[in-house]
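Dear Dr. V.,

Thank you for agreeing to look over these. As mentioned in my earlier message, I'm a first-year student in the group and I'm still getting used to reading structure tokens, so any feedback on how I've presented them would be very welcome. I ran two proteins. I've put each sequence directly above its structure. The first is here:
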Amino acid sequence: MEGKMANGDKYKVPEFETQWTFKDNLRTIDFVLSWDENCEIASSLSSIEKRKTYEENLCEEGLDIEAEFIEETGLHFLKIHAPLEVLHRYTEILKLRMPMKEEFYSGSKYTKQSSLIQMSHYISEKLPNVRGSWKLLENLCSCCGDWFTRHIFVDRKVFPEHRQRFTAIYSRDKHYLFDCQTPGFFTPAIKSRIVQFILDRTFFMKTDASDVFSFGIERLIDSSVYTAAYPLHDGDLSTPGSVRYKLYHHWAPVRKWYRYQPIDHIRNYFGVKIGLYFAWLGFYTHMLVPASVVGLGCFLVSLFLLGNDEPTKDICSGKLDAKMCPLCDHFCHYWDITETCSYAKITFLFDNYTTVFFAVFMSFWAAMFLEMWKRYSAEITHRWDLTGFDTQEEHPRPQYLARLAQLDADNKAQYKLNVITNYVEPRVPFWKIRFPATIFSFSIVLLLVSLAIAAVIGVTLYRMSVLAALSVYGESVITSYAIIITSTTAATINLACIFVFNWMYGVLAEYLTELELLRTQTEFDDSLTLKMYLLQFVNYYASIFYIAFCKGKLVGYPAHYNRLFGYRQEECGPGGCLLELSIQLAIIMVGKQAFNSCLEMVFPRVYKWWNSRHLKRRCSRARTSQWEKDYKLMEWGSQALFPEYLEMVLQYGFVTIFVSAFPLAPLFALLNNILESRLDAQKLLTYHRRPVAQRVADIGVWFSILDSISKLAVITNGFIIAFTSDFVPRLVYTLSVSPDHSLTGYMNHSLAYVSTADLDMFGKTNSSLQYCRYKEYREPPWSQYKYDQTAMYWHVLAARFAFVVLFENLVVVVVLAVQWLIPDISGKLKEQIRREAYLTNEIIISQEALRARKRSNLSLDGSLDFSQPSHSRNVGNHVSVNPMDLELEQPKYSRGVAGIRKKHTYNK
């Protein structure tokens, strides 16, 4: 099939594109709207009137529309095509950077070689006598590099490398700089983005309507006037030649886990926002490799040293004959310390000298990860023409402009010059509206966070009270299942609280963010993300922080327990709090990741199956169009990346904040992420409609969250090692108590005595035992200072704080050194950016000068008039286009959303 270019020439349309063109086989389908006549709301008179007005306004905007009705299913599809005039106009309005003509610059590419090969070239040139020896090394490196390129790097036969081209902000006044005539100048991603921009700002009611928010496709879908709005995938999964086919068969399969991702092709198909997510996920996964290797190495070293640990030998061999005090008030009895042999062995695997080394290493790793990501992100943003992109350059959200129109009508709006765009824009009064809204919003956030913390405390009190209630009579049946029943019901209540708070916050967060009147979509998303992450952080980490820093710390001692509401506080199990913390981390991290991965794949699959089954009942046609196939898929919402980032950032918290308690966390994270990236790819390509491409500068507020987590990790790891593990008491014992500086006798030294007659229990156990032991540094009952802390207690406490100070300062110095040694942008990239900016400016200046000379010559002849259009203003060598001035060429309905800015622009 043949299509037409802008200049009238014909070009060959790929076979897979024939399903997303109009009936004339010339105009491409850039967007699709659909509605179901079987829906009572969609078939009502008001919905019909709204659709009629909306579609008329779209036509006035310049979009081409073609309707299609599937009688068997009752579905109506509205196919939308953006003509070249609309694309040129909105590319200018959105200030998109477009590739310039290659004839203006040299298209030479940079050749990249490994540093070893470069060194061999240099030495062979400088030292001819050793050229033969270095030739062998060069051949060896070349062979290894070829193998690595073929099997690990992106397959360039499938995904050809995109050549870097010079770009500039598009201007119709400088159309001669750009390859406007090439068929692929406006990519499908750009077309869908422009159409989405128009759909979001088009009114569906008359211009004199009182509702200033009567615009936008989102509101029409929410009110069931339309059922869906989406761009088309370029073919199905079995259509060879399409980008979707290539991505599905060469990127998404799990068997391709070892290959690099085709980031540039992902970005071209899904847009910058999703491309950056996969770039970040891939970078994070690669950075987990050294952390996993070191963590696994520390675990294996711990396993090797297990047989030489003296405290474990004392417990398991029976050398230490100690009867321990009961762990609860009623049905618990005295127990032998040898019963904790298995617990002691497992605890040693996570609590030994390698723990400190690994905690320092992971703090160093976290700093390296963030600094290297900033460096890698700079390269990506340069390659994707995002360098210098600022949120102020984004077009204001239509909801923001509508609220400003409301304020302007009430004479509450203020006007201020936007120094970025050089336009006078209405602004929200800070002290009267924005400050109170922000205070109110974050007050609600803190209230919900406090409620989540209170829920954790409430569950803890519930566990203590139920355990006491079930065990008060001491029957054998109840005592056998008391702990199981208590833990199960408490976990169920905790889970229910998490679900309730998530639901409450999901409803409130977006409403609270709207009250803040944020100008751009990026600012809105960042504020919404920060609010939602705070609650998720408390929900997922509160119980872990409780075990790490609270459980068993303030319970008192057997002769005098510190009770809450008459109940004895929870104590750590026989293996200690660190073992419980490790188990809790392993269950939450591994279990939740496995459950979320299954849920992410099952839910879209069920949705697609149900939708397909529902449509098959009404239609038995074997062959369906591409827009019908995509209609069955699940919508990719504007906040769809939030759960993906949230899962990874929560995982990053497990890997860094509590890594000293679970050194295998990076390994499990690596295994999960290898599958996660491919499963996310399959989900996007198979079960979701094609997202509209969005332009963002970076990963947004997530980087600030990651940076905060890294700083918090330094503090928590220091305190976990100092106050939760036995590292510091063991160190003090070997340095100041043990005569041979070993751990021989450490367990007996760390256990205190208490008289069974002095036990603070509701019921006394029937035993002739005179003394029992407990883990604490206190004077024995026969001492003059009965049950007071010993001198060793204060020595250990001082050593704990000294360790925290030393650990924190050491890690901070290392982190600062890493940040100083690794600049955010490499020197080579800085020079390249400056060089490209210089060449681009030189090209524009030379072409403008050439054009000015032609204009003067033609003006003297009187044959042509090259006067600039009224909507352009020259500022030096840069043409600034006011999008609001362009509305003179647009219909009246467009002015309702943004006209308030234009109104003041004329009066300025």
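The second protein is here, in the same arrangement:
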Amino acid sequence: MAEMKKEVTAEEEKLSIRDISIAAEAQTKQGDTFYLITQRWWQEWLEYVNQNQANTVNDGSASEHHLSGGSSALKRPSSIDNSDLIYEATSGDSSAGIELHDTLVEGTDYILLPQEMWNQLFEWYSGGPILPRKVINSGLSQTELAVEVYPLRLQLHLMPKDEHSTIRISKKETIRQLHKKACEIFSLNPELVRIWDYFSHQKHALMNDMDKTLNDANIQMDQDILVEVSNGNSAGAVNSYHENGTADNGTVAVVRPSQSNFSSAEALSLSKGSSRNGTAELSQSQLLASSGTDKTYGSSGVSTRGSACGLTGLLNLGNTCFMNSAIQCLVHTPEFARYFREDYYQEINRQNPLGMVGELALAFGDLLRKLWAPGRTPVAPRPFKAKLARFAPQFSGYNQHDSQELLAFLVDGLHEDLNRVKHKPYIKSKDADGRPDEEVADEYWANHIARNDSIIVDVCQGQYKSTLVCPVCNKVSVTFDPFMYLSLPLQSATTRSMTVTIFTCDGSALPAACTVTVPKQGRCRDLIQALGNSCSLKHNEKLLLAEIRGHLIHRFLEDPLITLSSIKDDDHLAAYKIPKLTKNSKFLQLIHRREEREIGISQSNVGWKPYGTPLVSPISCDDVITRGDIQLIVHRMLSPMLRTENPGFNCVSRSKTSAAAAAANASCLAASSEACIDSSLVNDDPRQKDVSSSKLVNLEKLPLQLVDENNACIDLTVGEDKSVKLSSSSMSILVFADWSQKLLDNYDTRYIENLPEVTKCGPATKKARTEPLSLYSCLEAFLREEPLVPEDMWYCPTCKERRQASKKLDLWRLPEVLVIHLKRFSYSLSMKHKLETFVNFPIHDFDLTKYVANKNNSRRQLYELYALTNHYGGMGSGHYTAHIKLLDENRWYNFDDSHISPINEEDVKSAAAYVLFYRRVKTDHHHSVSNGTVSSGGQNSFSSRK
């Protein structure tokens, strides 16, 4: 049959194969046979049978040169040659049969043909070798049809004879069939043979459930099987510990006749000009039909659990690098690697309304096992992505997303799918009520575990201490809340320089600008403390901070917890020195006004406009206040600015004024300078009647107007003994000082005219640009006390009202695996922004001991970095990768989608670091965990709770 029948033309071949393909559509069933054929030969055959359409014009009419017999006519392909799919020198062990190359990819190296198609092509062309493969049930539901291109390759070790053999066997075969084959290969009496999961020269699990399939028994590619011949005594201990296990070894190609067969038929109808593209289309459809189950194969001689494990890439399905990087970090978390490679199915919670009926956990476990199988080519995570999109539509499609958001959803979803608590009890939290923190924390944790108990909680969850303080009644509420990861703020600098102008209310010093350094993420109390230290604030004084806008006081910054980040660089701040003891008092605000004239020929008056900086002085409400009292207070506030050469304004000790002014102008230490007026005005209450009557006569009356409670202006230049009625509804008394040109000649008002900006904007120094930010600084900023945002105010149980309480977080209980998210991205209604700040994070000896509030825990809290995700580029067009340390090798690798390459440890740190994964450094009394294996060989410290 080697010669093609002469009556069969290329066109007839094409139509015949197309009809066979259509007939086979929707008829594939378990147990059918498919055949591998090399992509190279298939492409050549497609071009041959489509050449008649090479010169067909767009309107469908045939070209005059159609098959004119020129040299352009393609010859019929030679016989089928699949030799490029197999090893040239196959093993002499006949039980292994013909071995395919380990790195073949469907659609690139080969395609799969139904048996009828193969039979027809083989009848026409003959050749070989013939490579049949069976259709099996696969997938999570075991209802998907898949071609098992790479059956399990198992290494049989016969003991005590120390012989070995390699066999190929379908993962759908049972343990009984494996047992039978082993007995046949070594010519053994089945009654005397037991088979074991064998690893590192040790027996692990006795394979005695004869009806269980190898797939259900979690047998992996290249697994070692011990064939033990006993002396007739079948007794023996059974170790139930399973190191291996996979639900799907990734050695299958999913078959969907409606897609793959149709694609074959469709490719036959393509024109010659597009036949190569058509074949690519065929390859793509077949790859799609595989539902992400890549052709991944074990390599001979590679240890099942050795260094080759885990070095498997993930194909980028179209902007899925955000997902790939997060998945790689999770699957290389040793506790998860071990858990999902063991029998975790019994813990799947299908009844949890907060979960995904177990499907997300199954899809993740299936993907993890594929990534941990040895010697594999990159995996396309399509089944996992499909499940993810089903339960989290925000991740559907092929747009770029935030890797940390995906990670948060995935970890939470896995927890709910694997929650060992099937019926969550209702537990009402109790208030601390002064009880010891240790007692309250343990109570909260016990309540949490009563409702949430999974491998995720075992490994990743820690506990905060959260303290809320009511700003009104000072009620303190302490709770202890679980956390899955830490999201740390990221600022480009840890400190900030701020300039504030300091004013005195007693005339003891001229206004002076003071620049201090404060924490960039600090509070107003930090600024006030720094200013007080710089200007030598006395023990009986305090600073009243105010923001000045338009020559008026915009707001008093009285709340010490106001964030400094809310103060912009171009704002103007004033700090007023006032006595601490100001009970039952109001603040007199002196607003300066200047007469403005219209520029032009007439130069007519326009009116009085605010100018300069308001001055503030406390005023007691206990005594009767007269107009003369206010005149004295204002005189005292303005006295440092009085020009000494002007004799029209009486002022005692003018020489002292000049000295004080000079000292104040030099530095902020002028708060202790001598007063510019006599001691009776400075040391005594200026509102006393004798002062009002005896001293005001020596001072020229200032053009002042007081705004009363009806918003009417009262002239304070007349009726100095008349009392002033203070508004009961306002804490401020507004007084306008109208500065005429004559008055301006007597006072040097330049000290109040222009306030400096809070931060003078300019190019950052090179040191500031390159100074790294410590991870410890980020953590400290995260744990710093801060007020709640207005939309998240706290209901105070004492006040019975919602309050903007201050909140302080402390770490109380740390997890085995600590995940830290660096908040590089900020979002607003108008824009998205990324911080490119380099964070200096420790790789070894990340010491959190001093940050844990539970001081009864004497254990040192040391962590070591083992994985991280990176984000490169901008918001929309960025790219994610992962750096991961294989603990067995003690070596770092870069996971860039499907490409994996070793990197040096010093290259792990970069400004692209986004999510960090730390493992607790084990102490001697803890089992050390290495890539999913309990190195002590003892009990799994994270085993399921029954």
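From my reading of the second output: The radius of gyration is 41 Å. The longest strand covers residues 585-597. Does that match how you would interpret it?

Kind regards,
E.
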